[in-house]
Design goal:
The protein is built from 16 helices and 45 strands. The protein is an alpha+beta fold and 846 residues long. The strands form 14 sheets. Strands 8-9-42-41-40-39 form a 6-stranded antiparallel sheet. A 4-stranded antiparallel sheet has the order 18-45-44-43, with no helix packed on it. Strands 19-20-21-22 form a 4-stranded antiparallel sheet, with no helix packed on it. The longest helix is centred in the first third of the chain and has 23 residues, at 254-276.
Length: 846
Amino acid sequence: MESPSWPELPECPVCLQYYDGACTTPRVLSCGHSVCEACITQLPNPFPQTIRCPACTQLVKFPQNISSLPKNIDLLRLSSLLQNPEKPISPKPKKPIEELSEKDHDFMPNLWDQDFYFSWKDWILSEDCVVIDEFGGVKVGPTKCLMKENEVLGLVKVGVLLDDDEGGFVFSYVGKIMRVLCGMSDGERDELGLILRESLRWSRVCKVFGLWYNEGDQGVYVVCESLGCKVFEKLDGWEKGFSDEGNGDVGLGSDVISGVLMIGLEMCEAVMGLHFEELSFGCLGLSCFGFDCFGHACVELGEFMMMGGSLNKMIAGATSSKQETDCKELEAILNSFLLEGFTFVSPEMFVELLRRGGANLGPDFQRYGVGYGSDVWSLACLVIWLLVGEPFIDEFRSYISCLLYFTDKEKANCEVMYMGWLDKVKILLDTRLKLESMSLKEQLIRCLNLDLGARPDVLDVWKCIRGMLVDPKFDMAVTSSRTMTKGNLRHYLVLGEISQLIYKIMKGPENQIKGVVQETCEVAEQVKNLRKDRDLTGALPAGHVKSIDLDCHLDCITGLAVGGMLGPGGFLFSSSFDKTVHLWSLEDFTHIHSFKGHDQKVMAVAFVDEEQPLCISGDNGGSICIWGISIPFGEEPIKKLVAEKDWRYSGIHALTVSGSGYFYTGNGDRSIKAWSTQNYTLSCTLTGHKSVVSTLAVCNGVLYSGSWDGTVRLWCLSDHSPLTVLGEDSPGNMASVLSLSADQNMLVAAYENGHVKIWRDNLRLKSTAAQEGAVFSVCMKAMSIFTGGWSKTVMIQQLQGDNNSMDVIPIGSIACNSVITALSYWQGKLIVGQADRKIKVYQYKV
């Protein structure tokens, strides 16, 4: 026999304790729900004399004396009857509240997730922080960020937005950069982020400020600090060496050697800093270094990235299209890099570049790998070049010839040839360095060892140079506790993803853009043909906006409302200055019926979804028409009401429906009137605004009203009592509220000055300039905000973040032909009413 089931004891929805009348007394809130006395005092109190019910999230009035709230006697009696001392009932565990409402369609998919945006947003520079003059010079714009006035900047293109105008939809400045970042591979983004972060950590590395989008060529650029003066441009006499005049055979003077060693020391520090972070350049050129304002040598990452991309491009071009490597062409490439940027490519790096470029190399070359020692090799060449000058350049050309033989699998004595070249370098150093500098010569020769593993670390080179400059007994510098990692590198910058990306951009952007222009023209033609019919599901490339026109009104559109499920797709209602309300099918957007009963301009329209569906419209003369929504549609309204008015104020400016037996009108006489949907009588009048009530919205048991007085008032729907006022805290900056939109616990208000304010749980989160000129309509769905107004553009923004940090991200815009006067949203479609009497329906093709 089954044991009897015991009913559960009534409990507080907050602390889950059973009501007992002693410690846990249920008190009834004005919304009808009960909460224990102790928990009521702990509930959030966003505004004076209001709390939010934990059961229905409604804002309700809260008296100063909690004992004035009635006890729930029925719950106490039920709890007493269910108490059974012989069979105690264990407490019920708290269950998570599941979302029961069906998720609506999004107008646009989530192009990037929230974490992705917050990881990159701080690296996106403002649109006007960089200015390119008519001569191609890069200047600091009015928004300087971390940049100094008149600072020289460098730009490195790392991406191109090839689909800027997607069939009428244009991404915002931030959206364009995010689109390019989303299009990168994980490796490219990781390396780009690493370069951005590490540039700010080391004093010998020029800063990388962030990412900037150039409208001119649709490119995304890395904005870098550029010192402007290169090391080789400031070293007079390097071509012939720094030998003392008339004493060339004796060698360099001590002061010359010290000057060269100071430059070499600082180059070592720049390279060493990135080595500590497990980064390697791969090869170095003197063009990558410059002097800062204190005369210190720093590495310029922008120059280095460009050098890496150019090197990859030239070698790939010389090898990819040929069966056999053209030695003369490769020799010309290396010589050009040697003469233009004084770039010294190590043997193993050259082999790897040839392999990446598609050259056919034998198995003997598998043992050569790139590592930290590749930077050491290039760094040693730079120091030797500064000491020796032009003779070393001549010998380096011999090395290039040797290197080309080295990559020819038919030559077996390549290592012998390399050692012969190294002996010649030793002789040059012997003639330049004095006996007391022989330790430096030995260290530099070790750096040029063909075996990468036998080369010293950059730290060892730095110690050797520093030991020659500073007497050990006076060297008070603390020896670094960090050690160089001998393991695998995280990134080789020359062989890395960013250099390959820059190489691809250099490879053929003109052809790519030409193809995109042609594709854009084809898309525009498809959109044009699409608009001739009323099919929003027709074929169109993904990532574009489709639209159709609804054209029956004879004057400006004033309101839009969606509802009614008599048809397969429901109905769209539109009101206009032409004194009519039109009914459209949401299935195929065909015109169904016209309601003609107003004598004045119709200002607002709403739909009542009850047992008897109704359409309600109000005009600027104060008349309210109630239309029955049943087939066949009637020619006359089933009821016509007239709002009270005086000679100063008149007219209906806003309409909304509560869903609980009332509809509300915002009136020119500064009041809100509540009307019964059962008997169409005036139930009450809500007063408090000081000017025309221009907009209304209902959500979660709260009526929101916006007015030309610049405030938003909140009213309790259960008893129509006032709750609070938003916007009174800044009377000096007030502008007329023209539109409201509420969704869940979010409220958005649009203002005449082009601003939008956002509240969450009635606490203001953001105030931002949405458009230039008045915003006549705002629509919010989930975390997307649509605004339209005087600028003839629909701006699309998204909210991303949490309670602690919320950002309003401009996603993009849709240009329209006229001023936008009304917005609505339905199942992934954006419906736009315009002043030119047209209604447009937009859908984003995923």
